[in-house]
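At this stage, I put together one protein's amino acid sequence and its backbone structure tokens, which the following lines show:
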Amino acid sequence: MTWDPEIEELESRKQLAYQLGGEERVKRHHDNGRLTIRERLERFVDPQSFRERGVLAGRAEYDGPQLKSFTPSNYVMGFATIGGRRVVVGGDDFTVRGGAADGAVGGKSGHAERMAREMKVPMVRLVDGTGGGGSVRTIENIGRTYVPANGGWDVIVGLLAEVPVVAAAMGSVAGIGAARVAAAHFAVMVKGTSQIFVAGPPVVARGLGREIDREELGGSHIHARKSGVVDNEATDEEDAFRQIRAFLSYLPDNAWKLPPVCTPEDPPERRDEELLSIIPRDRRRPYDVRRMLAHVLDRDSFFELGRYFGGAQVTGFGRLGGRPAGILANDPMRMGGSLDGDGSDKLAKFV
């Protein structure tokens, strides 16, 4: 007697998991201008580098010994490389229960966070889901609520002190999902297709009696320019991936390592005559601080964070002689470079 039936069931589960929420839901997701989580991972990480963990996690129904149906966990995670460097990456599958947090069977998102902390590698979250932790169905299934204890949040907070954490809002993100975006060193959201809020428009309409759409409530123009919840906005998903890769290229794998050093494209000992005239002699005249940084730093190496929030302050990363450096500067073009509340929050987060 062999184990062929069990092996066949495992393979069947895998194939069902790869189909995500089914053909109809995947098509609807594409029609909304968004990629599925597996498509995102394929385009984001180094080619053929993704090694999935927990693909078999899900809810199965049986008719006797036969597998009748299988609903995969709506969180896909594993190891991959970005620019040749190892990371843990995970993302919500919106085609299964709208990416709700309580649909992630077996606590896969928490497992991903713990893996990143134990392996001391960067953590990347592609968030495209809701909270769900307080749904009636969840309380009935597990026999309790998540309040007052939330067993995984200590890991998320501890992770921030040890490894780079990046989060991207890829769709409408609410509840716990919104918190997962905010609890990161670098957060980016896709303009026009992603929104972040504690609760969505129906809850707002019920509480305030005001009809409001998702974009008005929590679009990128709100969080990248007014609230400061995210650092940058991306024009599309590919741009979000590009920004994440760029951000990680300046940082070490963890707090115990040094950041990577690259060969500069321009000679560090160069003499730049334009620096003699960028800052005017008249103190009352402003100047373009970004133009100055472009001449001081290695060519095309400045990566700005939070340009449209706390605009009188400039923060970001650059390279000097190939070595990464954090950049703090005042922008004389905005309020004379003076420090206000938003600027203070921006500087504090960056430091």
Remarks:
- The first strand starts at residue 51 and ends at 53.
- The chain has two domains: 4-249, 275-350.
- The CA atoms of residues 143 and 258 lie 46 Å apart.
